[in-house]
């Protein structure tokens, strides 16, 4: 606090100085220089260069202003050259322009000026006379990066800042990659399949397993009062079912959870991304040791029905399979019917030894309507019927006499029905071992029980524990990379203590192997027995060593095999438990060197653009201060987990502050052009912001509160569809007005808009049918001809948009009006594309955006203010669309528009666009606003790069500093992934390359 | 007249005489009355408010609506006491007299068309000089009356006009609309008492001044500084709400109000310092001034 006060005081003093002492001088000099530059253009060569040199020599302290004067003519070109680092092949022409000769305009303006060696001298002088530290940095930069030969003094700043921006944008992705390679480590996996080492395994208790996964089966769905699992509860009461709560560690999405349940390992965070890129071959478990692979190796047959993730994970593993894709979440019935219809047939088959079923309907209900929806009870009842059918078959059919039936959820769901995070609801799926044989154990439990908040019903085990337990019960070797501990309740399936001991010992040995593979340095020999162990740690690697030595001691001391189980059994379990904890917590070894290197590289990028940013911020005082305040605040926020979770609050907050700035600014400007609309615009902005804020509740803390998109519209679907129709009409009108005059093109645009609306309507009819019930539109849908498939419709819309843009541009060229870039046309087409890629409930947001854009354009904002407005609105709308920093909020509903078969690139691009629709729209709109501005001396690329670089740095620093934090994998790593997307895909990919493409269109 | 004008310049000799008349064409910044009681109490008052805020904090957390409602009369009383003791009432802004002729004319040109619309017509007799003569002559009864009337007016305007406007602004800034309505209104009433009471008392219904207030371009003085500080404090008060500490005080109006109180105190004290006094936030002419934004 004190520091900031002092800083601001000194800043103010400096500002005072600037105003009173330097200000007049600067102004006068700027004028003089501008006049001089114009003189230069008209005067013959030698005189001009001498004069400029003299001037710059005398007033070297303010060479920036001189540069600015020249910059205005150059920015258009310099801008286009900021990021040719990936697209340099396509935009090679521009590069040649850049390095070789100046653009046409400059040639015109400064035709007579010599560009030979003058620049060097002018530069040297500048360097010598720079007064402030900042400018020394600047000088250092120009030293470090040699100026391109043949440039002249006036444009030096642009060249330098362009160079700096270009290099910075190259460095940011490099930094991110370096950091990622250290942060998401490669986990050493032991290759091959486990075998029994020169010994026989414990005898198998069961010879078949029926593994029934009900997606998102939270523990209370089965165990609590009011559950539909009545038959299953009766099994718990009779002791034929052993109930557990299986802790599913984050990320709680299907694929990593299946990996955990089959390999017994703790999947790395990267699996989350691979879960989205589902068919990626690197994520298959075909070459990993799983209990399925062990069964297969034994020569058994496996069958699978349900979620096709299994088929992707285990290609070629199943003899019979029928995969179901969860394409539409609104499908509650078909996905499950697809599994259940196979059950009777498979139950009468006796050739398999593992039957795997994966039901998706319950998860769909959760996503769609939440855990408390009316569909839930009937779905639970339906699942219970399946359990009953299987259980009665196990009792009656002779070939199922020795079958173990496992009923489990892969993860749970939170109160909003989503999953992916680490709340109690998401990490607490149910797990039941069911068999008539289990009744003999006499472990009867009370059921149902009262629901309670933390959802830990009965005993909580790890999800990874399923693997060694199944392996033990089926008489298989425990898979190599398993971190599971045999569930002790099931040990009593063996009669002899020696068998139990043998099993536990095997489990412990296997864990010891993995621990030794991870910590090659630590020894587990007998010599580690130390007196300190008695009171020593019971966790961490030392704890594991102590526990192991204790096991050794007990095993050595035990006289009889029968007694040794009662003695050594608990010790073995204790060791296994500690080993599991050690391995789960150190599942990731960070490469600290790489982390720091990544930070350093990104920091260099930030330092490169810092001078330009600083310079621009100083030019526009309050806006610059605001931007700096925002950047610093945003950076600091990354270190607090709750602010990362609730990032939207920051942007709403900043946005309201920025609107106050815009308001004060519009009030104070007494220019004749300022109308009443202009003055009321800020109020309109504030009102629209308030609507955006409530459109989609997101984050963690307030996620379940009512909002417009998920509460108001489902209750008033007619209002929604009215707004959607207006939004499409508006989009069509915008597109039409931006087209050149050609009746055919206009007709095409009209058809396209109607087609896009039709696609959205049909898509909604299959994706969110409840939004259509009882609305005026549902009658129209009834009359709507049963058109082509959704995929074809989407393709027609996308293809039509591309053709429209191409034709319109061609026509412009033919009419020779191509000098003006077709910005408005591209924006109109993009608008329609983004609407196609958005959820129905978000489409009215585009109407709000359009009104906001009108208000903003009436405000006569400066370049700097436009840049800040654009930045704030981009981030703000990302969250208004329902985005957040949690993996579970990635919206995949529009990721497959027009995509028939899975393709990583296409689906990735569509996913990105549908989640970043708001930011992309504002990027384009901001560009449109900026080109309509008269003054073009503002260069936003450096500012935006600086913002991106600092945000990446702060996230990286937070991830490095908090790498042992409890929330590192649930809060900070997802944030890092999102930042990666913001920095590479949004900033570099869309913003800079888009700008580059536009300017290349313009200059051609 | 001369004696009246001398008072504020004595108060802050460093900046006012040189800056205020020369730079500002509009209503000049208002200073605390020169009497020792006023000067002392003007320092005590923010501290008093903060102390009360601290003392009542637990009750506020326990039952915000009841506590806010119960505190309202006390806060109103304190604010009225403050303005009565420390501030010059509307129409007697002493520095007006020291204006050079052109600015005075401009001021007059601006005010008359607006004043008939408001209820404060009675308060602002056409010629400020008349009132001042009265004040100078009969300082006991008339003086008290001249102070009580604007005080009463400022209270009623605060509740009738400023509170609804501030409630709407609070909602625009993110206060819940569908729930917590009593909290929002009470919060707005508290904020209105903090910032509007003194503004109305000092400036009456001078349309030009209020336009400046709406445009956030008043010159910094104790009155405007505290108002701006209240607003900024309330804005910064929203920061702790999203934290996952699950403390009862993170509920909606509490942090905002505490921020407003702190902002009030800081703003009212800071804006009196010679460093900030008389400066204003301006965009069109190049001006410095980031202290207002950053120091809070």
UniProtKB/TrEMBL annotation, chain A:
Record's subcellular location? Endoplasmic reticulum membrane
GO biological process terms held by the UniProt record: GPI anchor biosynthetic process
Segments carrying the region annotation (Disordered) are: 36-73
Q: Which GO terms describe its cellular component?
A: endoplasmic reticulum membrane
Q: Which Pfam families match?
A: Phosphodiest, PIGO_PIGG, YBL028C_N
Could you tell me the superkingdom of the organism this chain comes from?
Eukaryota
Pinpoint the DUF2423 domain residues: 1-44
Which pathway features in its UniProt record?
Answer: Glycolipid biosynthesis; glycosylphosphatidylinositol-anchor biosynthesis
Recorded topology in the membrane: Multi-pass membrane protein
Which GO molecular-function terms appear in the entry? CP2 mannose-ethanolamine phosphotransferase activity
| Location of the GPI ethanolamine phosphate transferase 2 C-terminal domain | 587-999
UniProt cross-references to PANTHER family, sorted A to Z:
GPI ETHANOLAMINE PHOSPHATE TRANSFERASE 2, PHOSPHATIDYLINOSITOL GLYCAN-RELATED
Task performed by this protein: Ethanolamine phosphate transferase involved in glycosylphosphatidylinositol-anchor biosynthesis. Transfers ethanolamine phosphate to the GPI second mannose.
Q: What is this protein called?
A: GPI ethanolamine phosphate transferase 2
The source organism is Penicillium alfredii
Q: Supply the source organism's classification.
A: Eukaryota, Fungi, Dikarya, Ascomycota, Pezizomycotina
From TrEMBL, chain B:
Which region ranges are annotated with the description Disordered? 1-30, 95-129
Cross-referenced InterPro entries, in alphabetical order? GPI_biosynthesis_protein_Pig-F (IPR009580)
The pathway it acts in is: Glycolipid biosynthesis; glycosylphosphatidylinositol-anchor biosynthesis
Mention any Pfam family matching this sequence. Answer: PIG-F
GO CC annotations, alphabetized: endoplasmic reticulum membrane
Sorted UniProt keywords: Endoplasmic reticulum, GPI-anchor biosynthesis, Membrane, Transmembrane, Transmembrane helix
Q: What is the annotated localization of this protein?
A: Endoplasmic reticulum membrane
Sequence ranges of Low complexity compositional bias: 1-18
Q: Which domain of life is it from?
A: Eukaryota
| Membrane-spanning ranges | 151-176, 188-210, 222-243, 249-270
Membrane topology is: Multi-pass membrane protein
Gene Ontology biological process: GPI anchor biosynthetic process
Q: Provide the protein name.
A: Glycosylphosphatidylinositol anchor biosynthesis protein 11
